[in-house]
Amino acid sequence: MKQPTNLPAAVPANRPTRSVRLRSAWNTTAALLILAVLLFPVYWMLNTALQPDSSVAATEWFPTAPSLKNFDTAISTQGGSLLTSLGVALGAVVVCLALAAPAAYGLAQFGLRGGQTIVFTTLITQMVPGIVIANAMYSAYAELGLVNSYLGLILADASLGLPFSIVLLRAFMVSIPTEVVEAAMVDGANRFTAFIRIVLPMSRNSLITAGLFTFLFAWSDFIFALTLNTTDDVKPITLGIYQFVGAHVSDWGAVMATAVLSAVPAAVLLVVAQKYIAAGITGGSVK
Amino acid sequence: MTTITSIAPAASTGKTNSKTGRAPRRQRLLRWLFVAPALTYMGLFFGYPLVNNILISFQHYTPKTYFTGEAPFNGLDNWRAVFANDLFGDALWHTLLFTVGSLLGQFTIGLALAVFFSRRFRLSGMVRAVLLLPWLVPMVVSAVVWRRILDQEHGMLNTVLHAIGLAPADGVPWLSSPSVALLSAVLVNIWVGIPFNMVILYGGLQEIPRDVYEAASLDGSGPWRTFRSITLPMLRPVITVVLVLGFMSTVKILDLILALTSGGPADSTQTLGTVTYQLSFLQLDFGQGAVVGNVLILISALFAVLYLRANRADFGKGK
């Protein structure tokens, strides 16, 4: 374990002297080194994907002659799965937010009898293992004709984000002053329109955070994709790459190109919505 | 659990509640309409599985059940069959090793990184953000990439280890030897979990007031002493939450192991999660799968109690 030779307070905040600047440069170098080590698998994924002839044999260190051939293969074989994942994840976001936003508002502002117990129960549901849900839902899904259906998978995937979203949104909505909504209601709006017109716009940032995480959870889902589908009709990319690696283990270039494509949403969201992601990880889990 | 009920009435004496008391019944009903859809959904997707899983564990399911729809109750037969199966004991043991090993690794590295990134230097925030990527990428995808890296003959890890003289010419059988495969799975899961630990612990470190450190340095306390006597104790609530959340997400991991080793070689990476999957969805014995699932829930529930205790202080303050 690294010795914490330099705790937060050890660096004087004002007046950066030469030695402080030097130390900062060393720290930056160390940070980049840590980054290189921890993100090596991500580099390796990209590197392998860009090398057209990396079949079973060892992969070169650098893609000296990069080619997008593997990506052609990946898109032609897995493009449909990518679209399926996109559709299912977006559907899950819609279902999840539609359920979570009003519930969070109710729990935050209405002082409902038993509201605290509901919040606690919500926290606990995050601990139910997905395989247990799949195990018990399968027979119900079979009877309702939801196996191998988009709707079935969307509904199941929405459950991955719902407790998280309720807890996160509630933590934000608690701080909305009741006067704001009451003012709107004096002007003739009912509770529901006040919620739509006033509360939702005010909660924009936390709605984005909740939606983003629900998207990532649903995009990453493997257990429901694997268990609630018995045919290839509804095949998200996680299931696609799992079957792909089983069937074409010799074509690592194409497998890695698929892996790159399936990691794209995470990478894009990390760059575009960084602050929401940081807020989501801390806010949704500690609160 | 008793803490919840004792907190609830105390907390609901807030100002909103006094208004609810006066609200006419129709309006109170309207207010419940906001919460009802989510509650119904959670009842269906969390409550029903919990109950149904218990029922199924006492029923005899066969592939035929899916044609006839008949699953007669069979008492404790499933439980006996599962407990008599050597695989169950092995899986329980592997689950323990996998979970504890993963947590130890994720936590120590995550904490070291959190402390490191608490220093002020250029690019700190940027690097910290990019380090989140392994946590955001689907676990199946990470596992597939690692499968390539850990390949015995052509994997990058063996190539490097061999070049610097740390591995034999034929390489370490990371995923193909029963004695190493579980360790490999742990290593991959540590890699996946580092960012989550780092971010939460980093947040916790930022909450510690700076003057405490100043006082310590005035008293002549060295870095290690300061870390042990100030940072760790003040970070304790956050540490509890990180470890409990980490435990609960690690104990049920399925996708990482399936994509990495499928539970093999020779069942050496079978955990309660993979055994549940295998019994239910490969052998189509949902009854026995449910038994293992129930054991998994029981273990999670134990830690849920811990989690609630860790969160109790936080909830007393809320509305």
Automatic annotation (TrEMBL), chain B:
Positions of transmembrane segments: 29-51, 91-117, 129-149, 180-202, 238-260, 286-308
List GO terms (cellular component aspect).
plasma membrane
Its localization reads:
Cell membrane
Question: Which residues does the UniProt record annotate as the domain ABC transmembrane type-1?
Answer: 92-307
Q: According to Swiss-Prot or TrEMBL, what is its membrane topology?
A: Multi-pass membrane protein
What PANTHER family does this protein map onto? BLR7065 PROTEIN, SPERMIDINE_PUTRESCINE TRANSPORT SYSTEM PERMEASE PROTEIN
This protein's name: Sugar ABC transporter permease
Give the species this sequence originates from. Streptomyces cadmiisoli
Q: What is the lineage of its organism?
A: Bacteria, Bacillati, Actinomycetota, Actinomycetes, Kitasatosporales
